[in-house]
């Protein structure tokens, strides 16, 4: 269906224009000719080639969505007005919310500030808790299903794969519904859903909003699911006061994952609803200030060194001469990504164990000074780069130097940075390789995105 401005559904709802399309249907802006108000009308899409049984199954899913939404009375859940049948197919008539999806905002505006994301999280969590209170799990929480209204309202929509405790499963055994980037580990590996799985998906969604991509995003759905099952999420480097909430929501062990009440407390604190700083907030604040004023600090330190050079002789002391690393810049060279001109960077210049490694604008700071000794390790800040796991797509992090195979690299003649044990090459995790993009190990292809140089 293309031109639908003259189409009237069930003799009452005039379709105006298409708003969007997902796996469960196509959504239109409609006009309720009886009450004279704008509505959102969801049209069921039946893929070609379905059997009658499969088509009936799809209709039942649509009706289940309507029943699921109708059971929830909460401001952050889109309201359902009616279910009508037209041409033998069900249409769901819902509240129209002038808005943009969180997914669209991330794509067009980039990452959002931690406090803004926390406020969005508070609203979405309220919607989820209202659904959970009546026994409903959403099962597809992701940026595309979160609407940010023009009036500031945040709405969780598309309960198309929702499940109720007394509603039989509509999926075959082993089939995972939802988007792989945002599906909880227990759903991906064991098919177990429930409120805890929704909370994981919320955490992955908020992570994507501050980092620009989901924590386990890979080039294919299968690679994403493998990473989800075998790796830990890369630490969120831009989370700031949101770090504590993300840490609690993205715990793979369901028994250790925080519940809705604790998530609400942490998100409210991150959104500015509580005075004082927790540990995660303080660490973010300190690192952000160090990054912002690092050159002032370096200049002040240099001034102190120059002052000492004059004061020591005057006090009768002996000048011991320059020590290693004192004269000139920090030892080491920048590892530059040739395609973008950006450098391998340790966020905040903090040599913490398992600190993430990312791509950032070249500044010459300590976190970008690397050495490649003859032993094959790649060192920065007194520690070694290593892969988190041998799996394809594994991220890079900073760790204590042990000489393990995961820490051995070589710069090949064609400028690829290759891990010796796996024969895989380092590349940015996304094609655009924007500042903050984390690095991963991938099959060596000789592509420009895998070429590096030491400056």
From TrEMBL:
Its EC number is 2.7.11.1. The keyword Transmembrane helix applies. GO terms for molecular function: ATP binding; protein serine/threonine kinase activity. ATP binds at residue 42. CDD domains: STKc_PknB_like. InterPro entries: Kinase-like_dom_sf, Prot_kinase_dom, Protein_kinase_ATP_BS, Ricin_B-like_lectins, Ricin_B_lectin, Ser/Thr_kinase_AS. Residues 13-269 form the Protein kinase domain. The keyword Kinase applies. Keywords: ATP-binding, Kinase, Membrane, Nucleotide-binding, Serine/threonine-protein kinase, Transferase, Transmembrane, Transmembrane helix. The chain crosses the membrane at residues 297-316. It comes from the Bacteria. It holds the Pfam family Pkinase. It is an enzyme of class 2 (transferase). This is non-specific serine/threonine protein kinase.
């Amino acid at each position: 269906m293309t031109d639908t401005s003259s189409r009237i559904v069930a003799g009452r709802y005039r379709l105006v224009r298409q708003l969007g399309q997902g796996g469960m249907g196509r959504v239109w802006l409609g006009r309720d000719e009886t009450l004279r108000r704008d509505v959102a009308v969801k049209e069921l899409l039946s893929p070609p080639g379905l059997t009658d049984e499969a088509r009936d199954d799809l209709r039942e899913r649509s009706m289940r969505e309507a029943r699921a939404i109708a059971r929830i009375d909460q401001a952050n859940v889109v309201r359902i007005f009616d279910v009508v049948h037209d041409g033998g197919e069900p249409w769901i008539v819902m509240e129209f919310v002038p808005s943009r999806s969180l997914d669209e905002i991330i794509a067009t505006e980039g990452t959002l500030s931690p406090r803004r994301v926390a406020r969005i999280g508070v609203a979405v969590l309220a919607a989820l808790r209202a659904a959970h209170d009546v026994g409903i799990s959403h099962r597809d929480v992701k940026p595309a299903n979160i609407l940010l209204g023009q009036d500031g309202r945040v709405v969780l929509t598309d309960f198309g794969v929702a499940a109720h405790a007394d509603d039989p499963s509509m999926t075959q055994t082993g089939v995972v519904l939802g988007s792989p980037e945002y599906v909880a580990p227990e759903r991906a590996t064991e098919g177990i859903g429930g409120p805890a799985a929704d909370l994981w998906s919320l955490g992955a969604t908020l992570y994507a909003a501050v980092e620009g991509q989901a924590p386990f995003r890979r080039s294919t759905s299968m690679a994403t699911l493998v990473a989800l099952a075998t790796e830990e999420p890369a630490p969120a480097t831009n989370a700031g006061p949101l770090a504590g909430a993300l840490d609690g929501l993205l715990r793979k062990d369901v028994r250790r994952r925080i519940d809705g009440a604790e998530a609400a407390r942490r998100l409210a604190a991150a959104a500015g609803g509580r005075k004082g700083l927790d540990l995660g907030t303080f660490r973010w604040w300190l690192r952000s200030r160090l990054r912002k004023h690092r050159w002032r600090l370096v200049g002040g330190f240099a001034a102190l060194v120059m002052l000492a050079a004059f004061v020591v002789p005057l006090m009768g002391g002996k000048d011991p001469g320059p020590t290693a690393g004192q004269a000139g810049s920090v030892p080491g060279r920048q590892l530059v990504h040739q395609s973008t001109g950006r450098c391998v960077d340790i966020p905040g210049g903090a040599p913490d164990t398992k600190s993430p490694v990312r791509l950032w604008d070249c500044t010459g700071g300590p976190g970008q000074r690397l050495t490649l000794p003859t032993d094959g390790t790649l060192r920065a800040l007194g520690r070694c780069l290593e892969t988190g796991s041998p799996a394809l797509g594994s991220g890079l992090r900073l760790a204590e130097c042990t000489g393990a195979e995961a820490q051995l690299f070589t710069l090949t003649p064609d400028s690829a940075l290759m891990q010796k044990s796996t024969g895989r090459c380092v590349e940015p995790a996304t094609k655009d390789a924007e500042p903050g993009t984390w690095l991963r190990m991938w099959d060596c292809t000789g592509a420009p995105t895998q070429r590096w140089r030491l400056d």
